[in-house]
Amino acid sequence: MKPGIEWRQPRASAEQRQFAADLHAALARAPKAISPKYFYDETGSRLFEQICDLPEYYPTRTELALLQAHAADMAAQFGPQVQLVEYGAGALRKVRLLLDAMPHDGVQFVPMDISGPHLLAACDGLAVDCPGLAIQPLVADFTRPHTLPPCADGSRRVGFFPGSSIGNFTPAEADAFLRLAAAELKGGGLLIGIDLVKDAHVLHAAYNDARGVTAAFNMNVLERARAELGAEFPSGGFEHLAFYNPAYRRIEMHLRATQPLVLRLGDQSYMFNEGETLHTEHSHKYTVSGFQALAQRAGFKPGKVWTDANQWFAVLWLEA
Ligand code: AVI
């Protein structure tokens, strides 16, 4: 380095500082556990898209088929004048099926997502395809208090939360989200996709695909920690573990230490015994009646239900 030129460590972004703080907390608790939201950087989001197309991963194609077959009936529950709020909107692939079944002049579409650039790009594409549709994107974390744009006169507000994303919430988080949604959708309702309890072999295969895409998705949490935070751990030190836990009716994903090892993060060292895990995700599976009871406690009145011939996935209408 030339004399007089000072080298400074690049400053971590606020997001990286939060990741570091959450990972320290995750590694310090017993058992070790981190939020699944850290799967979704660019690589993780791409891997998740690949998961959705895997032969073993039935939820995406089953829900898409339900939306394709019943979009008109689902949209009929909304009524003609609506503010349609999509929670965690992403690429807007599923909501397009609903929008195609609705007259656009009565719809104010409010897609909400925490990732601004992604959301705005998806909205630009939608605006080209649906020139008459009023689109008001909202960059926000829908699980936290937020302010929705006012509803147009004579409209009611309805929500859309597809993908069984509620399955990744803890029961307390699911309850908190449903209460928040019931309050802000009062007078309207919520259309929500949930993954149903089923044969454990089908579930096991969906989270242990033959190509190893789910394993790479799971491992991405630690790969991110290595790339973004300079975390150090032996290569091959962790393996993907996903299994159905019938007591909690959930798939659990973990990263399991293949040997006794030390993970270094900043100036801290965290010990893993052989077989010890970092718990990375829950994916809760529901029965229709169990989920309706949960929704009812949060302030909804259960309405129509659409499900596939195998009863693997369901889309529920809940009046708020
Ligand atoms: C986003 N979420 C509903 C997926 C699920 O099935 O729980 C995430 C996922 N994890 C592993 N495969 C897919």
Automatic annotation (TrEMBL):
<dbReference type="InterPro" id="IPR051128">
    <property type="entry name" value="EgtD_Methyltrsf_superfamily"/>
</dbReference>
<keyword id="KW-0489">Methyltransferase</keyword>
<keyword id="KW-0808">Transferase</keyword>
<dbReference type="GO" id="GO:0032259">
    <property type="term" value="P:methylation"/>
</dbReference>
<dbReference type="InterPro" id="IPR019257">
    <property type="entry name" value="MeTrfase_dom"/>
</dbReference>
<protein>
    <submittedName>
        <fullName>L-histidine N(Alpha)-methyltransferase</fullName>
        <ecNumber>2.1.1.44</ecNumber>
    </submittedName>
</protein>
<dbReference type="InterPro" id="IPR017804">
    <property type="entry name" value="MeTrfase_EgtD-like"/>
</dbReference>
<dbReference type="Pfam" id="PF10017">
    <property type="entry name" value="Methyltransf_33"/>
</dbReference>
<dbReference type="InterPro" id="IPR029063">
    <property type="entry name" value="SAM-dependent_MTases_sf"/>
</dbReference>
<feature type="domain" description="Histidine-specific methyltransferase SAM-dependent">
    <location>
        <begin position="20"/>
        <end position="319"/>
    </location>
</feature>
<dbReference type="InterPro" id="IPR035094">
    <property type="entry name" value="EgtD"/>
</dbReference>
<dbReference type="GO" id="GO:0052706">
    <property type="term" value="F:L-histidine N(alpha)-methyltransferase activity"/>
</dbReference>
